[in-house]
Write a structure and sequence with these properties.
10 helices, 2 domains, 71% helix, mainly alpha
Length: 298
């Protein structure tokens, strides 16, 4: 049972919670806590420490505070495995036994304290203190990556300006992709044209060897037919290439028009420029406009 002196419980009360609980453990001569310390003993230590805080905070004399701790430990031990009804009976019996050791006011306060804490959560106390618990403890080491150092705000861009720049850049990337697609399609059409011409020439050569003497060339009709087929293949390939280039030109012009419209509707810079800076920007914009008109005229 807990055997504490008034000076001991006074020291426990005056210390911070963690240090106060550790001091209370030493006064009770319990073994030092470690990673395998009994969870049941830890909860019991919390209950005894809470009784110190209650009694000292309620104005109990230090001698009665020590008795309250002893009362708490005895009640927790004697009610182990009992029903709620038996626990209430044991609590009443112990209050009768301790009525000479507390004043009437403090005895009533002690009764209210255990009714509002221990009896109200009696099943929880019994579950933890009345049976062994299996504890499965797993430790996982996680690496926390701190965010990168942000750039100075003066180098930032307003969200509207940033979105506008992203839209203009997307249109520029689409235009570049269109040029690449046209080049790849043109190369594919040229390769298909070469393959068809080669197959036509091979077919004409195979026909010329049938029914003719060695060393004799193509006849006039066969040569004329070969030239017509070759011209038809080249004409068809050239038409496909022109059609592809024309469609691509329309698409590129549409992209350029969208990009130009976006540039004309560019958001105002933030913060707005001052009077002198505004005049300088207007002069630069006018100079760029004149250069653009000269380039278009050329």
């Amino acid at each position: 049972m807990a055997l504490l002196t008034p000076q001991g419980v006074k020291e426990v009360f005056q210390l911070p919670k963690q240090r106060g609980q550790e001091h209370l453990r030493r006064l009770l001569h319990w073994e030092e806590q470690d990673g395998r310390w009994n969870l049941r003993r830890s909860i019991l230590l919390d209950a005894l420490y809470d009784s110190v805080l209650f009694a000292a905070g309620g104005g109990f004399p230090w001698l009665e505070v020590a008795r309250a701790v002893k009362f708490t430990e005895e009640l927790l031990v004697e009610t182990k495995g009992c029903s709620v009804t038996e626990a209430v009976r044991i609590l009443g019996s112990k209050l009768m036994d301790y009525q000479q050791q507390f004043t009437t006011q403090h005895l009533l306060a002690l009764c209210d304290y255990f009714h509002n804490t221990f009896i109200r959560h009696y099943r929880l106390y019994q579950y933890v203190l009345g049976q062994d618990q299996d504890i499965n403890l797993s430790v996982t080491h996680l690496e926390v990556c701190t965010p990168p150092q942000p750039l100075p705000l003066v180098e930032g861009t307003h969200k509207d300006t940033w979105r506008h720049e992203q839209q203009v850049a997307a249109l520029g990337a689409a235009e570049e992709q269109k040029y690449k697609d046209v080049r790849l399609l043109k190369e594919a059409l040229q390769a298909e044209e070469a393959r068809l011409l080669e197959r036509t020439f091979e077919h004409a050569g195979a026909q010329s060897t049938e029914g003719t003497q060695p060393g004799q060339g193509l006849c006039r009709e066969a040569l004329k037919h070969l030239v017509q087929e070759a011209a038809s293949i080249q004409t068809k390939s050239l038409g496909q290439q022109l059609q592809c280039q024309i469609q691509a030109a329309f698409d590129i012009l549409d992209l350029r028009l969208q990009r130009q419209m976006l540039r004309l509707s560019a958001p105002q810079p933030f913060p707005p420029p001052g009077p002198g800076q505004q005049g300088l920007e207007d002069s630069i914009r006018s100079h760029k406009g004149q250069r653009g008109k000269k380039a278009m005229a050329k």
